[in-house]
Write a structure and sequence with these properties.
The chain has 330 residues and is mostly helical. The protein has 2 domains: 3-192 and 298-327, HUPs (Rossmann fold); 211-291, Tyrosyl-Transfer RNA Synthetase. Helices cover 54% and strands 8% of the residues. The chain has 12 helices and 5 strands. It has helices at 17-29, 52-68, 85-95, 100-104, 107-118, 129-143, 157-174, 214-222, 241-247, 252-264, 269-296, 298-327; strands at residues 3-9, 34-40, 77-80, 149-152, 182-185. The strands form 2 sheets. A 3-stranded parallel sheet has the order 1-2-3. Helix 8 (214-222) runs antiparallel to helix 11 and helix 9 packs across helix 11 (269-296). The longest helix has 30 residues, at 298-327.
Length: 330
């Protein structure tokens, strides 16, 4: 039997090409060898997003992005976290199996505390309970579906370790019911540079949006920072974020040809930006069309997520019944 893989996606901000290359594509590869589940982690977003209209629009935008990028709801289970009441019931049960000390060590909470102490504030200033209990809800997301593997980067490995600790504590108390997941470490995650050379990130506002209009895409590419060398000057392709972004979309032959022009001199950055725009625009054109179609008729998205929730609950309801019996409430 195939192992179960689960991927959660938080609806915060508009996806960009870094998300596509570094997260969406690797996650969709899991469908080849796993029974794959994908969910929109809308309740996780509540720790930072308090504008209900913005949250709703970001949920639709995220769902449309994954569907436009190749996620097939007929072949996988694609659902919205908020449609899964069993997850939230399980999160309370798991919170009673988790030590506070375990949550104290969670990176996100610890970083917030450290930042408060560094600025002279109370250690818990501005920290809501959602941030503190975030690992519990994440554990419930994972354990509710008997996930065998969860794809994470090295920086997220702690999340799985916390989940494993909680699952083992539950099983020691109530019997071997919960599947203890393994992290699927993505060693070679593509780190795409943003328009300023730093890692492409919404927090840096240096992104190239994935399915924006052609006008916005061209404007963003033209904003890619380059050095001040003249056209005729020799340039270093290995220290140029414009060239690095170019390598993700150009053919091997064109990459070598352009590298040669860097080293020989005579390459205008404006010319390469124009070529990069054409490459990315062609690359995203089919997905953009599907994305726009979905966003113009959001009922399609609602229907897809509702069907996904039915599939997901066919897994969660029986397991929750088993858990309830094990803890003595049923």
């Amino acid at each position: 039997m195939k192992k179960t893989a689960l991927t959660g996606i938080k609806p915060t901000g508009s996806p960009h090409i870094g998300n596509y290359l570094g997260a969406i594509c690797p996650a969709l590869e899991l469908t080849k060898n796993h029974d794959a589940l994908y969910f929109i982690a809308d309740y996780h977003a509540l720790t930072t997003v308090t504008d209900k209209k913005l949250l709703k629009e970001q949920i639709y935008g995220l769902a449309a992005t994954w569907l436009a990028s190749g996620l097939d709801p007929e072949k996988v289970t694609f659902y919205r976290q908020s449609d899964m009441p069993e997850v939230f019931e399980l999160s309370w049960i798991l919170s009673c199996c988790a030590s506070k000390g375990l949550l104290n060590r969670a990176h996100a909470y610890k970083a917030s505390v450290d930042n408060n102490e560094a600025t002279g504030n109370d250690p818990d200033y501005g920290i809501n309970c959602g941030l503190f209990y975030y690992p519990i809800l994440m554990a419930a997301d994972i354990l509710m579906f008997s996930s065998h593997v969860v794809p994470v980067g090295q920086d997220q490995k702690q999340h799985l370790e916390i989940t494993r600790d909680i699952a083992q504590a539950f099983n020691q108390t109530y019997g071997n019911i919960l599947t203890v997941p393994e992290p699927l470490i993505q060693e070679n995650v593509k780190t795409v540079p943003g328009i300023d050379g730093r890692k492409m990130s919404k927090s840096y506002d240096n992104v190239i949006p994935l399915y924006s209009t052609e006008k916005k895409l061209k404007k963003r590419i033209n904003q890619i920072v380059t050095d001040s060398k003249e056209v005729e000057d020799v340039k270093d392709p290995d220290n140029c974020n414009l060239f690095e972004i170019y390598t993700y979309f150009a053919s091997p032959e064109d990459i070598e040809k352009t590298r040669g022009r860097y080293l020989a001199g005579g390459l205008p950055y404006g010319e390469l930006k124009k070529e990069l725009f054409e490459l990315i625009n062609n690359f995203v054109s089919e997905g953009r069309e599907k994305y726009n179609h979905l966003m113009e008729d959001k009922k399609q998205i609602d229907n897809i997520l509702a069907e996904g929730a039915q599939k997901a609950r066919s897994i969660s309801i029986p397991l929750m019944a088993e858990i309830r019996k094990a803890i003595g409430v049923q």
